[in-house]
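Final report, results section. Input specification for complex C-07:
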Amino acid sequence: EIVLTQSPGTLSLSPGERATLSCRASQSVSSSYLAWYQQKPGQAPRLLIYGASSRATGIPDRFSGSGSGTDFTLTISRLEPEDFAVYYCQQYGSSPPIWTFGQGTKVEIK
Amino acid sequence: EVQLVESGGGLVQPGGSLRLSCAASGFTFSSYAMSWVRQAPGKGLEWVSAISGSGGSTYYADSVKGRFTISRDNSKNTLYLQMNSLRAEDTAVYYCATTTVTPDAFDIWGQGTMVTVSS
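Structure output:
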């Protein structure tokens, strides 16, 4: 089973700054089946990025995903006040289907 | 409007059972696999179970295999999770979710229903 490790655990930044979140997999993620989610307190997660780099519908272009193999990155180019939240990466294995999440990175206001 | 609405959560004693439901609307329910994902209080996300669009194939996380059963009624646009032999560590918010764009990512989520296992 692939284990996803996110770093850092907490990122303290100011609005307008750039955020760089890392997700490292214990084995290569097939077909770049790597997604990123944003979750705010009391809310369900929201899909931001799928296929490692494709933005989901309605996601602003300040969010971008990159990477392949075992190393993936979510970048928020300029933090808006509504971007302070917890972010999770997630990988998908197809045989059999299994979805695995990282432990999350909290982006907090500095 | 695309929507998933969970129900059936509550307080149950260890060893007890509970059945969760997820009502879908706004999309062709039978065309898509559905999953349950849970989140223990203050913790991260854990995929629990998935079922194919037809209901013919089911998949489980090792942590619930043999205790939980996922099913669906496509005539009612409803997903279910039968949870037996519940343990304290099953305490969590349970979300139903689906992958309508690509198989790897959950693009539609419900609001979640809380399950508390405690005596």
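Chain A touches chain B at residues 31, 33-35, 37, 39, 44-47, 50-51, 56-57, 88, 90-92, 94, 96-104 (CB under 8 Å). The mean pLDDT of chain A is 95. This concludes the modelling results for the funded period.
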